[in-house]
C-alpha cells in the first residue's frame, strides 16, 4: 500500500503528513517540498523519480532522519521523528534505517567485513554474534569471498554490494537507497537491482529508492514522481503491484 | 559505542605524509623539552650528590654561600666541641675550609674558565666518604700540593698527575686525582687550607666554611641547635645536602624556565602542525564522517575518535622525541655555577619521570590540536557533508 493523498488507513510503516522543506539561499527562499503526504506499507518497494533539484534526495534525507523538515510530520513504525533530539535521532537511525548511497560511501581504511560490521558495533551483540551477522549479510550479497578485501580492491558493483550488506546487517526497519546504480555500468546496475529486488521479495525488506534510471525504477512496486516539491503517483513499476 | 581504533590508526597511516610532519613537530618539541629538563636535573643531581646527610656545613649567619662567608679559628674550635660531631679517636671530624676561584685554560676551547680551589683539612677524606683518591695520593699538610677532581683533570689543561701548576702566586704540584662520584667536587681542586690561605695572603685563623661529620644524620638538629644558641657564634648551619640543593636552585630554575619557555613556543608550532593535520583529515574525510554519523554513531563517538587519532599522532611524536633524546643521558657538559662563579661539569640525566613528562606534554599538544578539528567534524550537517566529493 503506497498512497500520496493522506488517506491511508493508519497502518503504514512510513507516514508523512504536510511535509514542507524550505532552504534559504542568500536572500532567496527555496521551497523544496510542499505539503507532501506519503504512506508506505511494510515490504513495499517505492521508486522516486524526478528532475534534478526536484527534492528527491531531500525527501530521502528527511525520511532517514538526516535532515529536519521546516514543518510537517514523519512517522516511521509509529515513531514521530521530526521532534526527536539529535541524540535520539542518531539512535533511531541506527535501529531503523539502512542507507545505500550512490557513491557506496564505504570507509576506505576498513575491510569489507569491518565496513559491514560498523552498524553492529552500535548493538549489544557479542563479537561472535557480530561475525555471524556480517558473514550472513555478505553471503546474501554474494561476497563471502571478499570479506578481507578493502574497498579499493573491489569493483564498483562489489563495493555497492558491500554497502547493501552494511545496510541490511542490523535488520533495519527500512532501506533508503539514493541512486544506488548511478555510478555503475549497465551490467553491474542490473545485478544491484536484482539484489535489491531479492531483498524486497525474499527478505521482506521495505525499500525507498531515488533514481534517475527508468530501468531501475521499473523494478519498484510503485514509482512516484516529484515535481516542484509535490509528489505525484506515476503508476506501478514492473516489480509488483501498487 | 566507540568507533574502532583501527579506523584511526589506518587513517593516520593512509595520510602518512601529513602525519609524519605532525609527528616530527611534536617529536622535536618533546626532545627539546626533555633535554632541557634533563640538563636541569643533571645539574641539580651533581650539586646535591656533593652533600652527605651526615655532614653539616657551617657558615657565617646570612652568608648564602661559602664565597661570602667567614668562620674564625676560635669558632672552629667551638664547632669541634658541639654535640653529635663524629670523632676518629679523640679527633673531631671537622674541616675548616677556604675557597678561592682561579682561572685555568679549558682543554676544549683554550679559553680561561674559573675553577673552584678548595683548601681543606687533612681529614677531608674521612668527612666526605664519597671522595676517594683514584690516582697518586692525597696532599701532605703544609705542602703546596694539589689533588684534582677527575672532571677538573678532563676540563683544564695542565693538571695531569705529577705536573706543576702556577696560580695565586704559588707553584703547586699535582700529587693525586680523586673521584667524587659525579658530584660537584669532581670539578674542584683541593689543597691544604693553610697553604692556600698563605699563598693568597689571607688571615691564617679565618676559614670560609666548616664542614662537620656527624655521628648520624639524626644528630643534625641537636648539632644545629647547639651552635645557633651559642652566644659565641653567629653562624648558620645547614645539612650539606640542603646547602648544595640551595646552591643548585638558581641555575636549575633558570634552565627549567628556559626549557618550559622554549617548549611552550615550540609547542605552539607543534600544536598548529597537529591542528593542520587533523583539520585536513577532517576535511578529506567529510563524507566518511557523515556516513559514520548516518549509520548511527553519535557526535561524542566521533569526537572521541578524532581526539584519539590526534593523541595517537602525538604519542608517536612523544615516543620519537623521547627516543631521540635518550642518547644524551650521561652526556657530560659544563656550565658556570652562579653561586660560586666557577665551572661545574655535570651529566644530562634523562630519567623515566622526565620521559613520562615528555609523553604527557606530547599528549597535551595532541589534545589541544585534536579537539577543535574533532568538534568541526561533527558540526557539519550530515545531509550537506554526504554530498561532498
Q: What are the SSEs and their pairings?
A:
The complex is a heterodimer of chains A (242) and B (389).
Chain A: E1 2-3, E2 14-25, E3 28-40, E4 45-49, H1 56-63, E5 71-76, E6 79-80, H2 86-96, E7 97-100, H3 112-117, H4 127-140, H5 156-168, E8 174-178, H6 186-203, E9 207-210, H7 214-217, E10 222-227, E11 230-236
Parallel strand pairs in A: 4-9, 4-10, 7-8, 8-9
Antiparallel strand pairs in A: 1-3, 2-3, 2-5, 5-6, 10-11
Chain B: H1 5-14, H2 16-48, E1 55-60, E2 71-72, H3 73-80, E3 87-88, E4 91-92, E5 94-105, E6 112-120, H4 124-127, E7 132-136, E8 145-149, H5 150-155, E9 164-167, E10 170-179, E11 189-192, H6 193-199, E12 206-207, E13 209-213, H7 220-228, E14 235-239, H8 240-284, H9 286-294, H10 299-325, E15 332-337, E16 342-347, H11 352-379, H12 382-385
Parallel strand pairs in B: 6-11, 8-10
Antiparallel strand pairs in B: 1-13, 1-14, 2-12, 3-4, 5-6, 5-13, 7-10, 8-11, 9-10, 15-16
Helix pairs in contact in B: 1-10, 2-8, 2-10, 2-11, 8-11, 10-11
Describe the 3D structure.
The complex is a heterodimer of chains A (242) and B (389). In chain A, strand 10 and strand 11 (230-236) form a beta hairpin. In chain A, the strands form 2 sheets. Chain A has a 6-stranded mixed beta sheet with strand order 7-8-9-4-10-11, sandwiched between helices. Chain A is 31% helix and 27% strand. Chain A is globular. Chain A is an alpha/beta fold. In chain A, helix 4 crosses helix 5 (156-168) and helix 5 (156-168) runs parallel beside helix 6. With 389 residues, chain B is an alpha+beta fold. Chain B is 49% helix and 22% strand. Chain B has 12 helices and 16 strands. Chain B has helices at 5-14, 16-48, 73-80, 124-127, 150-155, 193-199, 220-228, 240-284, 286-294, 299-325, 352-379, 382-385, and strands at 55-60, 71-72, 87-88, 91-92, 94-105, 112-120, 132-136, 145-149, 164-167, 170-179, 189-192, 206-207, 209-213, 235-239, 332-337, 342-347. In chain B, strands 1, 5, 6, 7, 8, 9, 10, 11, 13 and 14 form a 10-stranded mixed beta sheet that branches. In chain B, strand 9 and strand 10 form a beta hairpin. Chain B is elongated, with a radius of gyration of 29 Å. At the A-B interface, helix 2 of A face helix 1 and helix 9 of B.
Amino acid at each position: 500500500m503506497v498512497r500520496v493523498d493522506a488517506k491511508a488507513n493508519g497502518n503504514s510503516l512510513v507516514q508523512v503528513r504536510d511535509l514542507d522543506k524550505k532552504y534559504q539561499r542568500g536572500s532567496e527562499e527555496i521551497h523544496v517540498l510542499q505539503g507532501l503526504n506519503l504512506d508506505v506499507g511494510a515490504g513495499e518497494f517505492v521508486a522516486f523519480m524526478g528532475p534534478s533539484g526536484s527534492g528527491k534526495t531531500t525527501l530521502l534525507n528527511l525520511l532517514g532522519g538526516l535532515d529536519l523538515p521546516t514543518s510537517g510530520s514523519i512517522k516511521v513504525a509509529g515513531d514521530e521523528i521530526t521532534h526527536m533530539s539529535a541524540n535520539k535521532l542518531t539512535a533511531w537511525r541506527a535501529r531503523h534505517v539502512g542507507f545505500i548511497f550512490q557513491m557506496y560511501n564505504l570507509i576506505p581504511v576498513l575491510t569489507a567485513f569491518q565496513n559491514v560490521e560498523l552498524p553492529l558495533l552500535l548493538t549489544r551483540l557479542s563479537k561472535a554474534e557480530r561475525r555471524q551477522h556480517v558473514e550472513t549479510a555478505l553471503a546474501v550479497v554474494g561476497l563471502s569471498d571478499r570479506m578481507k578485501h578493502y574497498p579499493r580492491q573491489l569493483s564498483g558493483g562489489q563495493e555497492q554490494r558491500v554497502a547493501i550488506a552494511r545496510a541490511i546487517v542490523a535488520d533495519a526497519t527500512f532501506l533508503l537507497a539514493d541512486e544506488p546504480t548511478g555510478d555503475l555500468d549497465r551490467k553491474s546496475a542490473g545485478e544491484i537491482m536484482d539484489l535489491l529486488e531479492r531483498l524486497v521479495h525474499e527478505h521482506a525488506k521495505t525499500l525507498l529508492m531515488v533514481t534517475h534510471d527508468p530501468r531501475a525504477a521499473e523494478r519498484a512496486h510503485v514509482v512516484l514522481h516529484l515535481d516542484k516539491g509535490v509528489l505525484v503517483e506515476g503508476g506501478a513499476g514492473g516489480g509488483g503491484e501498487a | 559505542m566507540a568507533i574502532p581504533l583501527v579506523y584511526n590508526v589506518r587513517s593516520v597511516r593512509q595520510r602518512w605524509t601529513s602525519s609524519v610532519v605532525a609527528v616530527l613537530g611534536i617529536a622535536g618539541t618533546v626532545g627539546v623539552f626533555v633535554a632541557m629538563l634533563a640538563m636541569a636535573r643533571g645539574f641539580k643531581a651533581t650539586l646535591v650528590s656533593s652533600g652527605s646527610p651526615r655532614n653539616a656545613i657551617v657558615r657565617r649567619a646570612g652568608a648564602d654561600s661559602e664565597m661570602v662567608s667567614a668562620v674564625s679559628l676560635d669558632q672552629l674550635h667551638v664547632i669541634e666541641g658541639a654535640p653529635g660531631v663524629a670523632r676518629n679517636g679523640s679527633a673531631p671530624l671537622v674541616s675548616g675550609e677556604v675557597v678561592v676561584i682561579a682561572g685555568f685554560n679549558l682543554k676544549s676551547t683554550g679559553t680561561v674558565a674559573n675553577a673552584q680551589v678548595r683548601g681543606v683539612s687533612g681529614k677531608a677524606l674521612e668527612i666526605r666518604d664519597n671522595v676517594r683518591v683514584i690516582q697518586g695520593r692525597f696532599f701532605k699538610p703544609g705542602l703546596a700540593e694539589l689533588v684534582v677532581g677527575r672532571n677538573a683533570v678532563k676540563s683544564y689543561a695542565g693538571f695531569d698527575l705529577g705536573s706543576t701548576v702556577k696560580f695565586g702566586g704559588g707553584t703547586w704540584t699535582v700529587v693525586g686525582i680523586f673521584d667524587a662520584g659525579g658530584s660537584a667536587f669532581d670539578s674542584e681542586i683541593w689543597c691544604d687550607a693553610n697553604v692556600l690561605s698563605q699563598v693568597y695572603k689571607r688571615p691564617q685563623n679565618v676559614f670560609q666554611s666548616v664542614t662537620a661529620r656527624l655521628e648520624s644524620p639524626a644528630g643534625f638538629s641537636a648539632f644545629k641547635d647547639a651552635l645557633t644558641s651559642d652566644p659565641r657564634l653567629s653562624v648558620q648551619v645547614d645539612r650539606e645536602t640542603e646547602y648544595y640543593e640551595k646552591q643548585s636552585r638558581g641555575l636549575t630554575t633558570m634552565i627549567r624556565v628556559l626549557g618550559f619557555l622554549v617548549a611552550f613556543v615550540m609547542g605552539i608550532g607543534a600544536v598548529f602542525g597537529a591542528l593542520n593535520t587533523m583539520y585536513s583529515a577532517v576535511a578529506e574525510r567529510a563524507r566518511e564522517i557523515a556516513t559514520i554519523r548516518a549509520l548511527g554513531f553519535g557526535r561524542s563517538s566521533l569526537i572521541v575518535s578524532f581526539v584519539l587519532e590526534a593523541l595517537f599522532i602525538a604519542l608517536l611524536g612523544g615516543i620519537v622525541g623521547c627516543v631521540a633524546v635518550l642518547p644524551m643521558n650521561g652526556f657530560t657538559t659544563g656550565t658556570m655555577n652562579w653561586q660560586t662563579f666557577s665551572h661545574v661539569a655535570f651529566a644530562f640525566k634523562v630519567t623515566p619521570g622526565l620521559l613520562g613528562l615528555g609523553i604527557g606534554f606530547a599528549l597535551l599538544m595532541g589534545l589541544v590540536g585534536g579537539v577543535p578539528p574533532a568538534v568541526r567534524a561533527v558540526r557539519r550537517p550530515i545531509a550537506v557533508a554526504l554530498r561532498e566529493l
